[in-house]
Amino acid sequence: MPREHILVVDDEEAILELLSYNLTKEGYRVTCAASGEDALKEAGTQLPDVIVLDLLLPGVDGIEVCRRLKAGAPTSGIPIVMLTAKGEETDIVAGLEVGADDYVTKPFSPRVLVARIRAVLRRRAQTPLGEGDAVKVHDLKIHPGRHEVLFRGKPVELTHTEFRILHLLARRPGWVYTRGQVIDALRGAGYPVTDRSVDVHVVALRKKLGAGGKFIETVRGVGYRFKE
């Protein structure tokens, strides 16, 4: 029987056919869109479970599509996996900052992309990390049940992954987590992602926290910790 619904957005017909074939083979229902305008229309009417979104689109580009979807109440909770030929750190950070949950760079392996989609769906289905009492440390207040972060009383908008990284580190100030431990804690052992992905998320997280970003410390050659 059909499982989750995936909206694939790309202006290259060959990419749409490749992804449609591989995702359908895995049992997903697939809808394709070739432009940003069509993506916004399809997402608003069908509310897919995941959107695979190319950055370089005619008309409304992928960054703007992501921004609009995350700003709208009906679509804000839909996980978005960026698919992009622009693999520079600044491009990836730009996508994460507007709300993308993950990214895959072109050229890509369909098997890896399917694994990323599965991981995003698992995270969406999971109960939020450590739901319960808020974590209060320095000028930050992190409430897992509400998925809310306040820095000096002002809300900070974070993606799901950024929130989980912050919560993981802030629960144990001074404790050092390797990049591998961060990946295992957030996405499960064996998740197909490089250590560099953690670094990119931390860069975006620090930027969003502003002055609060200094509390996330890099331990050279090891990983990250939250300042005691």
Structural commentary:
With 228 residues, the protein is α/β, with parallel strands linked by helices. The chain folds into 2 domains: 5-125, Response regulator (Rossmann fold, 3-Layer(aba) Sandwich); 135-226, Orthogonal Bundle (Arc Repressor Mutant, subunit A), CATH 1.10.10. The chain has 8 helices and 12 strands. The chain has helices at residues 13-25, 36-46, 62-71, 89-97, 110-125, 160-170, 179-187, 195-209, and strands at 5-9, 29-33, 50-54, 80-84, 102-105, 135-137, 140-143, 148-151, 154-155, 177-178, 216-219, 223-226. The strands form 3 sheets. It has a 5-stranded parallel sheet, with helices on both faces. Strands 6-7-8-9 form a 4-stranded antiparallel sheet, covered by helices on one side. It has a 3-stranded antiparallel sheet with strand order 10-12-11. Helix 1 (13-25) links the parallel strand 1 (5-9) and strand 2. Helix 6 (160-170) packs across helix 8. The longest helix has 16 residues, at 110-125. The protein starts with a strand and ends with a strand. 33% of the residues are buried.
